[in-house]
Amino acid sequence: MSSELIAFGFIEYIVFLFSTTCHEAAHSLVAMLGGDRTASDAGQVSLNPLPHIRREPFGMILMPLVGILTQTGLIGWASAPYNPEWSREHPKRAAWMSLAGPATNFALAILAGIIMRVGLAMRVFVPVEPSYMAVVATAQPGGVMEGVAVVLSVCFSLNILLGCFNLLPFPPLDGYGVLGLFATRSGALRLQDFRSRLRSFSFAGLLLGWYVIDAVYGPVFIAGLRLLYATF
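RESULT FIELD:
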């Protein structure tokens, strides 16, 4: 494994850690604002990654690093606790809680895109021919701004991926919970009941998500690039 790949893997992991922490903190914050302090009392309304790592050390540390070091791809996960009774009493609030995580990922991607767009306009960054989960802007080789461009590129592409994946409507992904926003109260409760019955099959939902994510992520990523590179 070359030093360049090690350096890129380190950047990718730091961005993953930050993005996942923001994702779970957003879930926890919206739940707290909606009346459920379960995650808040566990210290997860925080951009400090340690409470999230303590809850999911395998998903936040071990598996991502193994994937990076073996070059099999970055795989990781995290979670925020919530009170199921609160969720049933306030199904719409629970649905907003589900939406908060992926919405935060898209917000981070947009922020990274705006900064890169400004850098492109100022000729600090230059566009590159991107590929799946690759650098989309660069700068003077060996300079500080080249590192900044790589971090922003990874933040842009990785958060689009995280947002798309988590919005897939398969339990246990957040997108399934978001369906409650488009259902009646009784319909949202039935969705929760169905998810509870399928809890032992959660891994199947994750596998299904990984099977279809390319078909969703690709078009969204390309649309984001077109906005980023417009007029350049």
